[in-house]
Amino acid sequence: MSGVASPFRQAGAERVDPLLVALWIALIIVAVVWIAPFIFIIFTSLKSNATVMGTGAFSPPTSLAWENFTNAWRRGDFGTTVVNSTIITVIKVPLGLMISAMAAYSLSRIQVWGHKVVFLAIVFGTMIPFQVMLAPIFGVVNDFHLINTYVGVILPYLAFGVPYQVFILHSFFREVPRELSEAAQIDGASHFTIFWRIFLPVSLPVLAALLILDFVATWNEFAMALVILQDPNMWTLPLGLQSFQSQFSSHYGELNAAIVMTVLPAVIVYLIFQRYFVSGLTTGAVKE
Amino acid sequence: MLLAPAVLAYAVFAFYPMIDVIQLSFMKWNGLNADKHWVGLDNYRYVLHDDPVFWVAFKNTLIWTFLSVIFPPLIGFGLALGLNQNIPGRSPLRALFYMPVIIAPIAVATMWRWMFDPFFGLFNSLLSAAGWPNLIQDWLGDRNVALYSVFIGYVWEVAGFSMVLFLAGLQGVSQTLVEAARIDGAGRFQLFRYVTLPALRPTITIVLILSLINSLKAFDIVYGMTGGGPAQSTQMLAMWAYTQAMQLGDFGRGSAISVVLLLITVAIVIPYLRWTLKRQEAYQ
Hints:
The complex is a heterodimer of chains A (288) and B (284). Chain A has 288 residues and is an all-alpha fold. Chain A has helices spanning 18-45, 49-54, 67-75, 78-109, 115-127, 134-143, 150-173, 178-186, 191-202, 204-220, 223-228, 237-247, 252-272, 274-287. Chain A folds into 2 domains: 18-71; 76-287, MetI-like (MetI-like fold), CATH 1.10.3720.10. In chain A, helix 3 crosses helix 13, helix 10 crosses helix 14 (274-287) and helix 12 packs antiparallel against helix 13 (252-272). Chain B has 12 helices and 2 strands; from the N terminus they run H-E-E-H-H-H-H-H-H-H-H-H-H-H. The two termini of chain B are 28 Å apart. The chains are: A mainly alpha (288), B mainly alpha (284).
């Protein structure tokens, strides 16, 4: 409450607490360490190769080599990978949230029968890492002849996104007062109407949190895309960056420009929607 | 009916592969043509007995998991404790520590690979500037050092995740309890030991389990930084399963490795599920 006005004091105390000041200094030092990689990457992205080799790691670039960005964009074929990443994310994220919300709604209606089993199955699903079974996933997608297609990567994304989102939404839907939906049911509303008109609007903050988390997760996903999207024309941003790194690792400035361009969209989304990240994460894990 | 799309997608693309991987682990198949036949336990015999890389990967996965359960949660806990105090700049600091979590792991790998560059990278430049040239390493090229170098990047990437969970847990510590203990004359460390820590027990369990599970998922960062090298010194089970199946074209052997890893994961998840269920019942 008075936190901003009088920092470094214990609640109710008048004096400045020396331990808190020491703690704060320690945090600032850690923060400097944490931010150093970002600064190093940004500096390098604006240096020509000669400057990288000739000057110190943290000396700021003297003349800004913006051409690193345009060169990296062209060489790394960012035009293609950005479009692919955008298409996949824009389709997958809302669609996945929709089917998860529908599933969570119907699960919250099942009261007696098997609700413990369903709950266990969902939590189990959230914990099994798909990195463990990349090859069989490739096998299934291949059986559907969907290798190198958007659909082929979106379907497994949907499948592995479902458990966590259902888990969160289910625990939220359970708290919606029963009177609300029963009243609507008496008025003759269908399940779909109740879901659409009552449950979705009341859970907007949770949906927003999940949307943002899933946007970043989908945008960043690498391993599954690596297995399914093998044609360079279908690559997403992370695949493009990895290939750029293996081909042009000695074009220091351009490599770092490529990193900055890959990372920037997620960082911007994060900075804008920061509080949703925290709420989306913690509702799931800590409170449940 | 509203349930159908989610269940269908999960059954076909998540649950079926889990079953399929078990089946494939008893077969010989290159993943492409129709020639797929039963070979019994051959794959397991090869992987567990004849394959020299498997046990290296197994050992590395153990070391990695062990370190992942200790360091990122400890750092996250320290940061959360600090940020939970009455100090200026809490929000920007929190935002900064969490930032690496939202960056693509493959980008984190690329960043750190460049920082570890033996000639112009951050670490060696700093060491030579500081006058400690004898500490200069080929961070990712030396097989005794590489695994730990990758791990340092991993700590930077994931510590913020533990921090956020601990912060949420700390906010759940009852302030009335804290006040009461303070009035009773409890000192700072008594307060921490007898009020805060017990209240954080569930959070600590959750953070440790999630760190454990996430450490088994570490694929991107190793793939991007070293690809398992040099001389398999950073090879891990998840990546070795991928390499066997997708790069060496032996789905049977790859699946056998996956099954071993899956069994390890399940052995961790099931006790956790029982614990969650008990809490869930207590809560209702």
